[in-house]
Amino acid sequence: MKTVVVDHPLVRHKLGKLRDISTDPVHFRQLAGEIAGLLAFEATRDLPTEAVTVQTWAGPLQVEHVRGEHLTLVPILRAGLGFLPGVQALLPAAPVSVVGLRRNESTHRPEGYYQRLADRMEQRTALLIDPMLATGGSAIAAIQLLKDAGCPRIKAIFLVAAPEGLRALEAAHPDIEVYVAAIDQRLDENAYIRPGLGDAGDRLFGTPVD
């Protein structure tokens, strides 16, 4: 599995602010979106382009365009929605596919409760969006759902990932690509990423932390 840590001064700076518990939801969303855009920039370096001719002030000129129909953005509900605007700022024409997952309290495994995918998934590259990769269970399930829909190429972006989650993801889906701002130290006994960000969903949306 190709794993890229986007090691850039701006990413490190913004991630440091996200880790600060005094960062309020407004600034947390802003910073998360900015990092998402930087990660998406790296993840889309190899997007195919097509030549088109435009009319410039000096006459016709052949330029390159990225075709939005080659892509779909896939946030995992709910935290992925807070990560989405930063990616959409770069790829405004890409349709958004939505995947909702929740944990089955009996099996402790993620189960899908909602999905709405773009058409022609078999022709698209999917950019999976979720702030955190902890155990990897949700990402593994979401990627399998995309593969079952015929999606031939999948890339995932996360703010932070735990080594345990990356290993599980590679074991399940070695053919995908992962782009992260940081690989953190470990999971604790409650499967929280350390040092992590806390509950990214609660911090993004301003809901009480359990």
TrEMBL record:
Gene3D superfamilies named in the record: 3.40.50.2020
- Is Cell membrane found in the keyword set? no
Q: Where does uracil bind?
A: 193, 198-200
Nuclease in keyword set: no
Q: Where is the Phosphoribosyltransferase domain?
A: 5-207
The record's comment on cofactor binding reads: Binds 1 Mg(2+) ion per subunit. The magnesium is bound as Mg-PRPP.
The GO terms describing molecular function are: GTP binding; magnesium ion binding; uracil phosphoribosyltransferase activity
* Annotated NCBIfam families: PRK00129.1, upp
* Protein name per Swiss-Prot or TrEMBL: Uracil phosphoribosyltransferase
Q: Which gene encodes it?
A: upp
